[in-house]
Amino acid sequence: MTVFIYDECWHNHQLPAAARSYVKGASSRVAVSSSCSLADVRELSVQLETGEPLIALGGGGILDKVKLAAAATAQPSWESYLRAGRSGVTTIPGNKSCPILAIPTTLGTGSENNSKAVLEVTASRRRLVLGNSLKPSGYVYLPQVYESLSPRLIRHGILEIVFRCAGILAVITNATARREYAELLQMAVTLYRQSDENPKPQNDSVLLEQAARLSGITHQVPLGEKTLVWVWPLWYLANELSSLAGITKLEATIALAPFVCERIGSFGCGTIENLRQIESVVGQNLPDFLTPAIASLGGSVCHNLASIEVEQVTNQTFSQWAGLGLPLGSVLHVQLRELFSTLRRQFSATDVEASAPRSYSQNASNTSSLV
């Protein structure tokens, strides 16, 4: 018996023919929302049987929810791990789960091919959940489902791939993996520029399929590292900023990137040399590369960024991610406060594009690393 779990938004749209074939092979269907809260996971898990094959069609939030619900059916005590410790990351032991065939309908997250999930534990807090049991047993890319995405969502999805490749390239030391991620970054940058130059990227099926497959590939390259590799702090800063500012994580990442680059050596990629290596692949410095994305954030996003409670986002970020063995390591509370204060002040300016930092060469002599 196979359960087909899908995004409820498809109630108002006919699924592409390629996706309908998977519906026909399922014994039951479950429509779910795009959110991935603890309540959502509980609600879905009680509808599933242990070991029952699942087909999941949706964006990153839905795939994460299905992965967690499947793990919950095999490990009823999984929630106890969420209560352990104060950090923003939780690891679920074990390998048992329901077999999942993931069909992503958005670009960039790569949830269909990784062993991670982002869970909303409260209205303003998300937790990164890790575990071998969370990795789907298979995935399928259907370019037709991406045709309903807006140009903005397509560009942001590809930009998420750019950030992932750049972040990993910034911290890994294995020479083979570095070469492979440099190539992946170059491919992602090329796709992003193509999508930015095309007013209707949703009509370019080749572009959409290449972006979808590239997203999955970025989770497959062996890193060759013996210890857990944390990508640069941008993701973790954006996780808290987006939760409290009411914007998407990618919007928060775009807004934060120039400010993190400006502080290279204090925290960020670690050293100015690492950043320059990344920018040699991109072909320009990252703030300049991101200028179109920053300029297109929109008035409501800029207003929310200009209205953040600096102390609140600083405290939450420090609590979730700073400390021994955590992504932000020994970063100081005052450093985070200064970063978020500067971001709020800059986004209060009328001309957002002009307010973004464009140069960070003055920090080149500071090569201490918190990564």
From TrEMBL:
<protein>
    <recommendedName>
        <fullName>Alcohol dehydrogenase iron-type/glycerol dehydrogenase GldA domain-containing protein</fullName>
    </recommendedName>
</protein>
<keyword id="KW-0560">Oxidoreductase</keyword>
<dbReference type="GO" id="GO:0016491">
    <property type="term" value="F:oxidoreductase activity"/>
</dbReference>
<dbReference type="InterPro" id="IPR001670">
    <property type="entry name" value="ADH_Fe/GldA"/>
</dbReference>
<feature type="domain" description="Alcohol dehydrogenase iron-type/glycerol dehydrogenase GldA">
    <location>
        <begin position="31"/>
        <end position="132"/>
    </location>
</feature>
<dbReference type="GO" id="GO:0046872">
    <property type="term" value="F:metal ion binding"/>
</dbReference>
<dbReference type="Pfam" id="PF00465">
    <property type="entry name" value="Fe-ADH"/>
</dbReference>
